Amino acid sequence: MTETSTAAATGSSLSLQRPLKAVANVLLTLVLTFIGLTAITFTIGRVMPTDPVLAIIGDRAPQEAYDRVYLEMGLDRPIYEQYGRYLNELAHGDLGTSIMTSQPVLEDIKRFFPATLELATIATLMGVLIGVPMGVWAAVNQGKFIDHAVRVLGLIGYSVPVFWLGMVALLIFYGNLGWVAGPGRLDVYLDGIVETQTGFILIDAALAGEWDIFRNAISHLILPASILGAFALAYIARMTRSFMLDQLNQEYILTARVKGVSEPAVIWRHAFRNVLVQLITIIGLTYASLLEGSVLTETVFSWPGIGQYITTSLFNADMNAVLGGTVVVGTCFVGINMLSDLLYKLVDPRARS
To answer: Where mainly found (predicted)?
Structure first.
């Protein structure tokens, strides 16, 4: 009885150690990634050929003012001390103050990041809802016209420069046809009417019952979301096609067909179920890349998102804003990848071990 109890206790201890070890590994990965991200960004910011002091006081300030601000910013200290000071402030939720806006960087990010999140989320949904069926359809009809058409469309969507495609779309659908609204998130006369609750203009307008503003926001969102969605669609469709072709050539698919399983069941219940595991990672990477890579789209469409905020800050040598925006985007990237890994394990029981 004692041996049985000891064995049970040992088994229970081992089963408890596994999840604790997994959590510890995840936390260690997060910490190391965060330190690496901030260290690289901070170092680049310090070695850039721009003077953050001049960005604050201007190039006509007296030398005494320059020296005073130089010391206040701690630029006289070794770079590792500057980085340690920055990490300490970061641990207390202080990202510094933006030179451009004279506001805390954290407040600026709260204002700009929801716009990027809204744009990237809708673009990713478009890519998934259209790209996945296109990829499956192309794989099922391998070598036929539809397969070649999907591959050509995917190649075009993945290779055409986003700034050119955005300007052409604005010229045609906004300038000539007038089907959609132009740059920005809202028309100027509607800006500021809806109280900001979530930062997502569609949700805030719906909560306030301002359906005219809701429709205007959708009209502004269509073009930039479609441009980003085209790139997401092309990548997701291409990867879905590749994954499906690999599964459709497996022996279990041939066995299912020999047993008389219907073709839709073979495609969606058998082949696509195994593809779904790989697609989760692809969709997660696509979403994360849209969050960090929408700079050109936001610039072309004057979309007030985090990409445009970081770019403008970089041109103005506002390194606190650049560092803060980079840290937030990098953290989201890591978080989305971790969420993808979690969903991967939920979908595929084999990965849980």
So the answer is: membrane
